[in-house]
Amino acid sequence: MSKTYYITTAIDYTNAPPHIGHAYEKVLADALARYGRLFGKKVFLLTGVDQHGQKVQQSAEKQGLTPEAFVGGVTQKFLDLWKRLDVAYDGWAATVEPAHKRVVQSMLQQLFDAGQIYKKATSGMYSVRQEQFLSDRDRNEAGEFGPEWGEVEEREEENYYFRLSDHVEWLRDFLTANPDSVFPESRLSMLKNAVADSIGQQQDLCISRPKSRLTWGIELPFDKEFVTYVWFDALTNYISFAGFRAKEVGNEGLPDFDSLWPCDAHIIGKDILVPAHGIYWLIMLHAIGLPDSQIPKILVHGWWNVRGEKMSKSLGNVVNPNDIADVVGVDALRYYLLSDIATGADSDMSEERVIMRYHNDMANVLGNLLNRTLNMAKKYLGGEIQATDYDDELGVELRAAVAALPGITVEALKTYQIHKALAAAWDVLILANTYIEKTAPFKLAKDPANASRVVAILGNLAETLAHVSVMISPVIPGAAKKIQAQLGWDVPAGLTIHDLKWGMLPVGHRLGEGTPLFPKVELKEGA
Ligand code: MSP
Fold first, then answer.
1. What is the pLDDT of residues 292-349, one digit of tens each?
2. Is the CB of 248 inside a 6 Å radius of any atom of ligand 1?
3. Which is the closest atom of ligand 1 to the Cα of 19?
4. 306 lines ligand 1 (CB under 6 A)
5. Does the N-terminal peptide bond of residue 516 adopt cis geometry, omega within 30 degrees of 0?
6. Is any atom of ligand 1 closer than 6 Å to the C-beta of 10?
7. How far is the CA of 19 from the centre of ligand 1 (A)?
8. Which of 180, 357, 384, 400 is 20 to 30 A away from residue 231, measured at CA?
C-alpha cells in the first residue's frame, strides 16, 4: 500500500449532535481518499473517536450512565452520520479499545524508562465543584474565579510530566527543513512562531491525572494510581490503529504499519494545530524514535462560520448536517461543503447558499444536461448510441474540454483544492449545455438530412456525462452512480483516470431512462 490518507476527530463530549464542522472534515477526508483511488493510488482512510477524559466522565455521571454506555451512545451518532454522508473509512479508531491501550502503555513505558517522563508536585488553585485546577484564563473580568467554580482552594498535586522542552529545538529545525510538513503555508508560519516562542521556556507537558480525580482513562504502566491524561491517549490513536508496534504488544487484525506510515495527509481543523498536533504530537513521535522521514504531513483545514461568527451553542447558530441533508440530500450537501470553501481557508455557511448552489449547479447545470441528453437520445436515437462520421469544431471543443479535465483535477488536488476541481468539472458541464443551445439538436432533428449530426451531438453529450460523472464521483458518489445508471453504463470496478478514454459508451450502447435527480426544494421553516 503506497498511500495513506489519515484522519481522526474527537467526540463532542456534551453529547450534542455532531455539527457541520465535524461533517466537513470527514467529507473532505473521504473525498480526498476517493480522489486518491481515482488517480490509481492505494488509499487507507482512518477515522475515529476519542473517548476518554474528564468531560466524558462528568457527562456520563450527569446522565446517570457509565462512561462506557455514554461513549457508546455518542459514538453511534457519529457512526450513523458518517454512514449517511457516504464517508467510507477503512479503519475505525475508538480509543477505549484494548489494542489502543496496549500501544499507549508501551509508549509511556518506553519514555519513562528513557527518563523522558518524570514525576513532579505542583500547586495551584483548584475548583472543588468542577474537580479541576484553574488557570488565570478561568478568572472573570474582575480577576476573580466566578461562582461557577464553587469553592476554590490552593492544592498541591503530584503528576507525571513529559520532557517536551528537550525537543522543541528539534521541532524548529524540522519545520525549517521540511516546509511541506504543514499545509497551508500560513499555518506553517503560525506553528513556527509558536515553536519559536516556546524555546527557552522549559515547559514540559503534564500527561497524568491521579485516579482520585479521573478514572476514565488509560492507567500509567509504571504507576497504578494515575491515568494518562488526553495527549498520549487521544493523539496516539493515529498510529495505534495503523498497526504501530502491533507485533510487539500483541495486537492482531490491524494494518501493516510499515506499509501505511507516514500518512500523506493528517487532516485537522485550524484550532487544534497549536499546540496539540503541531507541537505535542510531532514531538511525541520524535521522542519515541521515529525518524524525520516518518513524521506525518499535517493538512489544516479552515472553519465554517455563520455570518462571520464561530458556530456555538451559546449563540444558537450551530448547523446540523442532518437538517441540510434532509432538504437537499447528501450529495448536494457534500458538494456544497467542498465547493464553497478553499481547503485551508474559512468560509461562511449559509442555508440560502446551499439551496442556491443546489438549484444552480446540481439541478440547472448537471441535472438538466442529463435529462435533456437522455430525453433527446430516446426521442431521436431510440436511446441508442449510433455510428456517425460527422464532426465539427463545437464537438472538437467539447471533447478537448473533457480530455483536459483529469489533468486539471490532478493539479488542483496537489494542493487539496477540491473546489477548483469541481469548478473545472462544472465548466465542462456548462460548455455541454451551451453546446446544446448552439447546435440545437431538437431543431436539427426535424430534418432527416441532419441525422448524422444529431447522432454526433447526442453521442458527444452522453460521453461527456460519462466522463464527468467519474471525475465528480469523489465528491458526489451517490449521485454519480445514479447518473451512470441512467446512462445505462456499467462502470468497470476500480476504474481510474488512466482508463478514461473517448468511446466508453460505444456504438450500440443503450442509454437508460432519464428521471430528474435534483427536484426543486424549499428551505424548511426553521431549518
Ligand atoms: N478533541 C479534539 C481532537 C483531539 S484529536 C486527538 C477536538 N475535537 S472536536 O470534536 O472539537 O473537533 C473535531 C474536528 O472538527 C477538529 O478538527 C475541528 O477543527 C473540527 N471542527 C470543529 N468545528 C469546526 C467548524 N466550525 N468548521 C470546520 N471544522 C471544525 O478538537
1. 999 999 999 999 999 999 998 888 899 999 999 999 999 999 999 999 999 999 999 9
2. no
3. 23
4. no
5. no
6. yes
7. 10
8. 180
CB of residue 271 inside a 6 A radius of ligand 1: yes
50 lines ligand 1 (CB under 6 A): yes
- Closest ligand 1 atom to residue 25 Cα is 29
Q: What is the DSSP letter of 151?
A: S
Question: CB-based contacts of 418: which residues, under 8 Å, 6+ apart?
Answer: 28, 31, 32, 35, 338, 339, 343, 412, 475
Nearest atom in ligand 1 to the alpha carbon of residue 269 is: 19
d(CA 232, CA 219): 11
- Which helix (H) or strand (E) segment holds residue 7: the answer is strand 5-7
Q: How far apart are CA 264 and CA 282, in angstroms?
A: 14
Using pLDDT thresholds of 50, 70 and 90, give the confidence band for residue 55.
Answer: confident
Please give the Cα distance from 369 to 362 (Å, whole number): 10
- The two beta strands, 152-162 and 117-127, are antiparallel
Q: What angle, rounded to 10 degrees, do the helices at 20-38 and 321-328 form?
A: 60
Dihedral of CA atoms 467, 469, 470, 475 in degrees, nearest 10, equals: 150
Based on its alpha-carbon atoms, the radius of gyration of the chain, rounded to whole angstroms, reads 27
Closest CA to 165 of 195, 141, 192, 189: 195
Residue 448's pLDDT is: 97
Query: What separation in Å is there between the alpha carbon of 418 and the centre of ligand 1?
Result: 20
Instruction: Answer whether residue 499 shows pLDDT above 80.
Output: yes
By alpha-carbon position, which residue is closest to atom 1 of ligand 1? 10
Closest CA to 373 of 504, 489, 505, 462: 462
CB atoms within 10 A of CB 189: 13
HSE-CB for 447 with a 13 A CA cutoff: 6
Provide the pLDDT for residue 5: 59
**Percent of all residues in the chain with a pLDDT value above 90, rounded to a whole number:** 86
Contact 514, 370 (CB under 8 A): yes
Q: Ligand 1: does its nearest atom lie under 6 Å from the Cβ of 268?
A: yes
Give whole-number Cα distances, 316 to 52, 346, 347, 458, in Å: 27, 20, 18, 50
For 196-223, what is the mean pLDDT? 94
How close is the Cα of 13 to the center of ligand 1, in Å?
A: 12
pLDDT at 524: 66
- Give pTM, 2 decimals: 0.95
Digit-coded pLDDT (tens) for 453-462 = 999 999 999 9
Burial tier of 97 (Cβ tally within 10 Å: 0-12, 13-18, 19+): middle
